Structure formats: C-alpha cells, structure tokens
Hints:
The protein is α/β, with parallel strands linked by helices. The chain folds into 2 domains: 15-259, Type I PLP-dependent aspartate aminotransferase-like (Major domain) (Aspartate Aminotransferase, domain 2, 3-Layer(aba) Sandwich), CATH 3.40.640.10; 262-387, Aspartate Aminotransferase, domain 1, CATH 3.90.1150.10. Helices cover 40% and strands 14% of the residues. The chain contains 15 helices and 15 strands. It has helices at 15-25, 35-47, 58-68, 86-93, 112-124, 144-154, 207-217, 225-231, 249-259, 262-279, 307-311, 315-324, 340-343, 353-361, 373-387, and strands at 51-55, 76-79, 97-100, 131-135, 157-161, 169-170, 173-174, 183-187, 200-204, 221-222, 237-238, 285-286, 294-295, 301-305, 362-365. A 7-stranded mixed sheet has the order 1-9-8-5-4-2-3, with helices on both faces. A 3-stranded antiparallel sheet has the order 7-6-13, with no helix packed on it. The protein has a 3-stranded antiparallel sheet with strand order 12-14-15. Helix 3 (58-68) crosses helix 4 and helix 5 (112-124) runs parallel beside helix 6. The two termini are 24 Å apart.
Amino acid sequence: MSPSVIPYGRQDIRDEDVTAVEAVLRSDWLTQGPAVPRFEAAVAARCGATHAVAANSATSSLHLACLALGLKSGDRLWTTPNTFVASANCGRYCGAALDFVDIDRDSLNLDPVALATKLEQAEKTDCLPRIVVAVDFAGQSCDMTAIRALADRYGFRVIEDASHAIGARYLSEPVGNGRHADITVFSFHPVKIITTGEGGMALCNDAGLAERMARLRGHGIQRDAAAQAAHGAWYYEQVELGFNYRMTDMQAALGGSQLARLDEYIAARRRLADRYDRLLADLPLKTPWRDPDADSAWHLYVIRLDAAALAKPGRRAVFERLRAAGIGVNVHYIPVHLQPDYRRLGFAPGHCPVAEDYYTRALTLPLYPGLTEAEQDRVVEALREALA
Length: 388
C-alpha cells in the first residue's frame, strides 16, 4: 500500500466554519448581504487599515487596485519575477507595459537596490513606472520602507501584493496597515493562511480609492440617494465600465470564521518552520532567510539546494523522488518573464539573473497548520533519502 500524500499546502475547515456558511445558506442573502461588509471590517480592523474591499479573487483585487490607481495604456507597471503570474498580469489587463525588477538573494523579494538602479536609468529615458507591485514572497514582507522612499522620490504608486502574508508583521506592525503601500492585497485561496474558497481583498487608507474599487467590482454601478429620490428607489447608474468581481456572503462567512483563528494558524506555521530549520541543518541546502525587521506569515517553506545537490542527484530527481514517496513538494516560482506569453513580449533569460538562479535551486516543502510532527519527520527523512 502506497503512503498517503502529504500536500505542500492544505486548508483547515472546522465545524464552526461549516456553521458560519450554513447560517448564510439559511438566510435571505447569499450574496450582497451583510456578511461581506462584516468580513471587510474585521480584516481592516485586524490590519489597522481604514478601508477594505473584498473581491472574488486576489487577481481581481490586483486588477481593481491598478484601475483605482489610474493605470492605463501607455503606462508602465514593474514587479518581481518571483511571483505568481497574476502580479504581472494585472498591469496587462489595464493595457500597461510590464517590466521586472530582480530579487534580493536573501529575502527573495523585490530588491530595493536593483529597483533604485532601474529607476535611475528609467528617469533618464522618461520611462518611469506608474505602479510598482511589491510581492511578499512566502509570507515575508518586502523592505517596504526602502520601496516607499523610492516611490516618494520617483512618483510611482505602490501595490503590496501580500497574497501570502495576512498575519505577517513588518517593523512590529501588521502587514496591510497602509503605512508604506497605497493598496495592499490579500489572497484567500485554499492554500493560503486563511481561506474563503476563492477570494481576495484590497486594503487602503484612501476613501476615494476604496470607493472606486468597490464600484468597479460591481459593474461600475452606483446607487445615489438623491437620484433615487428623483427617479425611484429602483434607480441606479453605470458611471463607468466595471466588472462582476463580487465576493459572495457564503465566502465571506467562511473567511470571517477563519479569521478568528489567524493567530493560531500563524503560530503553528512558525513553529513548524522553526522545526524544519533544526531538522534540515545538516543537509546540503539553504533554509529560508529570517528578516530581523519582520515576522513572516510562513505561507511557504522554500529551501534552496546547494551546488553539490544540484549536481547530483539534481533538483528534478529530488523532486520526483519526493513525489514518488508521497511528499507533495512544489516549486515557487518559475520566473514570470520566462513564461511563453512573456517571452513573446521580448523577455528572455538573463533579464533577472538572481531570480533565474534561485529558480533552479528552489523546492517548496509541505507547510500548513494541520501538518503533524510525525508527517514533518516523514518529509525530512524522505528529503534526506532523495538527496543521497
């Protein structure tokens, strides 16, 4: 009998989550009811932000953020290559040109030094970005102080793609508070820290940005009290072209229930990450870097194989041996600029050499709150055998 598979990530659904969703199913509102604004308010309060706008995915939230910040055809959006494609695609949805800033060798996040160099060159050719999307890879905050300073100097807006990082902290404050980013986006996909099934949320401290994102997620429609008084209570107006990016009340109820356990989830992930560090100390690999100025949410636990392990047995062999042993390892991420669709835009190997080198070494090990120590021991022993 083959061993059960240990996935790299897994949701945690409990009776209270089922009860919360069931309550919505038995109510008068399955969508556009009270659960969504209640969930938005809870997340905003947790993160210290003034406004939160829920959507049906983090991808939708990124798109809404770009639109609210005025991104359009002829503009430029820069982001990191070490991310899921949505962090870049959101700019293309708006007709903007894309470019990538290489990553820092330690944090694996967008490198502020590389960003500063690229901005200095872009200023000379009048090619500065309108938006920079900084991604908190694996749950670890970017160096947002440095990025904000560059934004103030060069005049671009900052979207913090914190899809991996709800519950993380930066300089002792919650990620999402808007101190350094114009808009912060969270993801509630099932493998993320908390889940709504699918879902996302954009947080900000600007009422105008929040109002526009909320309007755009609902077809660009607004309901104005004065207009309704003049025409009738049914009256609404589409004032701009929007989208159906709404989150349902069922999703929001699940998210609200999960949010109550956020501290528990982060503590479990941190404990397991610390234990991995100890268990892997003698193997030919590099464990994740720890930022003294930030507390990661530990969405992912990514190791980097040493040169000896890359030479023999090689990353692919290690990956396949682990998968054959029932260990659901993964790789995060293929550099976005090397995807076929982006190569058609002119990107090629060598554009972001640090990210490209990292990709050849990366391997994501299972990490989620329900992972037991016995299962973690099994992961480590299988990795040890795969590296032999």
